[in-house]
Model the fold of this input.
Amino acid sequence: MSLPTLDFSLILPELVVLITALLVLIADLLWPRAASRGREQAPAVLALAGLILAGLLTLLAGEWSGATLQGMLVADALARYLNLVVLLAAALGLLLSWSYLPHFSTQRSEYYALYLLAVAGMLFLGKSIELITLFVSLEILSIALYVLTGFHRGQLAGGEAALKYFLLGAFSSGFLLYGAALFYAATGATRLADIAAQNAGGFYMLAGLALFLVGLGFKLAVAPFHMWAPDAYQGAPTPVTAFMSVGTKAAALVALFRVVQAAGSVPVGVWATALAFLSLLTMTLGNLAALRQSSLKRMLAYSSIAHAGYLLVGVVAGTAAGFDAVLFYLFAYAFMNIGAFAIASLLERPGFYAVQDAGIHAADGLFGRRPWLAVAMAMFMLSLAGIPPLAGFFGKLYLFAAAVESGWAWLAVAGVLNSVISAYYYLRVVVGMFMAEPSASAHLRLPLPASATLAVALTALGTLLFGLLATPWFQGISR
Amino acid sequence: MLNYSWLILLFPAAGAVINAFWGRRLGRRGVAVVANLAVLAALIMALIMAAGVRSLPAAAHGRYELTLWQWIGVGDLQVDLALLIDPLSVVMALVVTGVGFIIHLYAATYMKLDDEHHPLDARRYARFFVYLNFFILMMLTLVLANNFLQLYVGWEGVGLASYLLIGFWFHKPSAAEAGKKAFIVNRIGDFGLALAIMWLFFLFGKSAGSLGFHDLFAQLETLSAQNSPALVGITLLLLLAATGKSAQIPLFVWLPDAMEGPSPVSALIHAATMVTAGVYMIARTHPLYEMTPASMTAVAWIGGLTALLAASIALVQTDLKRILAYSTISQLGYMFLGVGVGAYAAGIFHLTTHAFYKALLFLAAGSVMHALHGELNIDRMGGLRAKLPRTYAQFLIGAAALAGLPLLAGFWSKDEILYITYQKNMPLYIIGLFTAFLTAFYSFRAVFRAFHGAPRDHHLHDHAAEQPAGMTRPLWVLAAGALFAGLIGIPAAVGGLFGVEHSHLLEAWLHPVFANVQTPHLPAWWELGLLGASSLIALAGLGLAYARYVRQAGWALRLQRLFSPVQPLLEHKYWIDEIYMAAIVTPLRRLARFFYTFGDQTVIEGAVNGLGRVTAGAGVAVARLQSGVVGLYALSLLLGAVGLLGFFLLFG
Done:
C-alpha cells in the first residue's frame, strides 16, 4: 500500500480561506466585546485579508498542474481562473457587506465565517475531480448560502426565502447524488478520470448524466430548476445576492464542464442538445419575466437567470473556445452584475433594508443627485444588455461566436434576440436615471459609504476595461 | 517622443470629464481655466509631435503608428486603437488645437452672456465647455485615426458635438430645429461612410486583416485596372460622406442653419475644423481616388459647382453670419476642387489658411453681434468703423484674406488650387476664377455695409461699444495668421524670383504623404501670369463693391439693376430648401405616415400587441407559477428532471 499523496501546496488558497473562516469565529470567542470598543469591523477586515491573500497565492502560484489528495482534487488552469473569479466576486461582495451589515444584524463574525465557508466550498467545487468530493464541496457552499440567505433575522421574506432555498436545494441534491450513484454503478469508479477511462455506455451513464444536470442546473438557476432563485435573490441580503449570483454560477459551471467531459461515452449530440434547449428556455424565461418586475432587485434576479442561459451557450459549444468564452464572461459578469447589485444595495433605504427594497423607479433622477453613481449604473446596465464597448458585449460576442463555430447558429441567434428583449428592461433603468424626475424624497439621504463606493468604482472600472481591453484578456484566458 | 502622443487625446478628455462632474463647483472662471489648459496642453503635444515627425528616420516615410491597444479581434479582422502620426495628421492636429485654443480663449469671455445677453449660469457655461472639449477630443480622434473604424468613431463624435452645440440655445425653436436638421442631413452622409467601410472590408478586409489605412492601401496593388466598379462605388460613397460633413452639393443645406449655434461654435466647428473633415478624409484616402479618375472628376466638379453656387447666394444675404456660412461652403468647394484635381497639398494648404481667416471673421462677427445685442442684419448696421475700431480692423483683415487680396493668406492657397486646376480642367478653372471675383465682391460688401457709411439704425449704433479685451485680444493671433499664414506656401515660381529654393514649406512638409502623386508644373513666367490674373480678379471684386456700396457710383447701380431679375433666385437660395422639402421631405413624411398607419399601427402594433398580450399572458402565467408555494416549485423541478431524463433515455 502506497502512502496517499498529500500535496497541500496545490490547495493553499482554499486552506487560507478555510483557516480565515475559523479565525473569524475564534476571534469572536476570544474577544467577545471587541465590537463595543470600536472594532466592529474586525471580522470584515480579517475576512477581506484572507480573500486577498488567497487571491495573491492563486496569482503567484504560477502554472498549476497535478492532482492531489489521492486524485480527489486537481489544480489546473481551469481551477485557477475559477479561483480568481470567485475570490474577486467574494471580495467585492464583502466590500458591500461592510457597510450593509450593520443595518440589520450585529452578528458579524457568523456572517463572515459563513461567507468564507461558502467561498471555500466554491473553490473546492472548482477543483473537484471526484464524485464525493464534488458533492461535499457543493453541500458546503450550499448550506452556508442557505443560512446567509436567511440572515435577515426577524424578517419574514428572508426567512421564507432561505427555507425555500433549503428545501428545494435538498431536493435537488438528491438528484445529484442519485446521478453520482448511477455513475458508480456503471463504472465502479468515483474519480472522473477513471469514469472517463471506462468509457462505459448504456442506461446508467445516460440517466446519471441527466440527473447530474438537474442537480447542477439547480445551482446554476437554469430553467425549469430556477424557481427558487427569484425568491432567494430578493430575500437574501443584497451583498449575499451579489456574491452568490456570480460565485455559485462560476463554480457550478466548472463542475458541469468537468462532469460532461468525464461522461464522454454519452453522445455529444444528446447532452449538448439538451443543454441547448435548457439554455434557450432559461434565457427566454428570465428575460420575459424580468420585463414585468416592479422591484429592481427582483428584476436583477431574473436577469441573472437569463445570464445563466447565456453562459450555458459556451458549454453547449463544447469547444475550448466555448469554455474560454465562459470564463471571460464570468469575469465580465462578476463586474457588471455585482456592480448593479451594489447600486441596488445603495438605493435601498437605510434602516429599511429589504423590507422596503428598491423599486424599479428607485433610480429615477439619480443623475441629478449622484451623477457618478448614475454613470456607473448606466455602464452596468448597458454592459448587461451587451452594448459595445463594454465587457458584456465582448463576453456575448465570444460566447455566440463559439456557438456559431461549432454549428449552434440557431442558439446564437436566440441569444442575440434575447439580448434585444433584455435591452428593454435594462435601458428603462438608464432612461429613468437620466430623464425622469426623482420622487421628492428619493436619494436625499442616499448614504454613500466608502467601502461600497470602492466596490462600485472597481466594478465600473472592470466593466470598462474588460470591454476596451477585451482582446488581450481573452487571449490571456485562451492561453 | 512620439510614444507619448496619446496624451493629446487625454488632455481634452480630462478637461471634458473634469468640467462635466465638477464644473458647477469650479465656477465659471475655473471651468474656463480647465477647458483652456486642456486645449493648450493638446496644442503643445501637437507641436511636440510635429518635432517628432521631423526627426523620424527616412526609412519611416514620415509615418509613425502608435498602437495603444488591440480593440477588436474577431476571426481574421483586427482593429487597433492606434494613432497614425504623419505630416498630414500633424498639420490637422495643429490646426485643430491651435485655432481651437484661440477660440476657447475667446469663448471664455463670450459665453458669459447667453443669447439674450443675460449672464449665463455656471452650469450651462460648464456644459458648453464640456461639449467644446469633447469636440476637440473627437476631432483629434478623427484626424489621428490609423484605420477607418476609428475615423468613423471620430466622425460620429464630431457630429454629435456639432448637434449639441448648434442646439445650445435649445429654448429657441430655430436653434433646436437647426440642430436636428444638421444631424439628419449628416446621417445621410454618415450612411455613405458606413457603407464604404463595409464595402472596403468586404473587398480587402480578409486579405489585409485590418481596416488600417495603409494595410488596405497596400492591397490596392492587387487591382490592376483603374476605375474598377467596386472602387468607384467606394470612393463615391466616401464622397457622399464628405459632402455631408463638409457641406457640399447636395448636402450643404444644414450649414447656414447651423449658425444658430453660439459664434465660437460657428468659428470652431462650422468653419475651421469639423467641416474640413471631408477634405481631410479625401486627402487621407487619396490612394483610392488616384485609382479612380472618374471619382476624382466628380469630387472636382462638386467642389467647383458648390463654390460658385454658395458664392452667388452669399452675394445677396443680409445676415452677417449667413454670409460667412455661405462663404465657408464656397471655400470648402475650393478645397474639394483642389483635392479633386489631385492638388492634395494645395487643398490642405487652403484648409489651413481658411481656418485662420474664417475663424477670425466668425469671431469678429460674434463681437459685432454682442456689441449690437444680437443684431446680425447688415442692413441695420453701417458706420460701425468708429464705434468698434479693433473689431473693424480684425474683420477687415479676415475679409481681405478671404477675398484673396494679393499677398494675404487666402491668396496663396486659393491661387495654388486654381493654378493646378488650370492645367487639369479648363472649365473648372474659369468657374473658380469667376467665383474668386464673387468672393472678393461679397466679402467687401459685408465690410462696407456693416462698417462704412452712415449708421442706418441710430438706436443700435448709439449703444454699440467695443468688446472686452478677453474677446478682442485673441483675435490678433488669428489676424496674424490671416495675414501671414500664406508664407508657408509660397509657390516656387515666386520663391525663384527671390532666389529662395523650396519656398513652398507646406508642400515639402507634406511630401512624404503625397510622394506618389505627380503635380504638373508650368514654366515660372506662366505661373506668375496666372497669379497676376488672380490678383486682378480679386481687386476687381473689391473695386466693384467699393463703387457700389461706398461711392454709390451710377454705373454700379445700373449694373445691379441689370442683374435684378436673378436677385429673388439668389435671395431664396435657388429654392433648394423648398425643393428638398417638396421632393424629399414631404414624400418621405407621407411614406412615413403610410408606414405608420398601415405598417405600424396595423401590422406591427397588431403583432406587438398580440405578442405583448401573449407575453403578458405568459407573464401572468409565470407569475402564477411563481406563486411562492414550495410544493409547486418542487413539482417544476421534478417535471424538469423527468423531462431531461426522458430526453436522455429517448435519444441516447
Q: What stands out?
A: The interface with chain A takes residues 20-21, 69-75, 81, 615-616, 618-619, 622-623, 625-626, 628, 630, 632-634, 636-637, 639-641, 643-645, 647-649, 651-652 of chain B (CB under 8 Å). Chain B has a mean pLDDT of 87. DSSP finds 27 helices and two strands in chain B. Residues 70 and 444 of chain B are 53 Å apart (CA to CA).
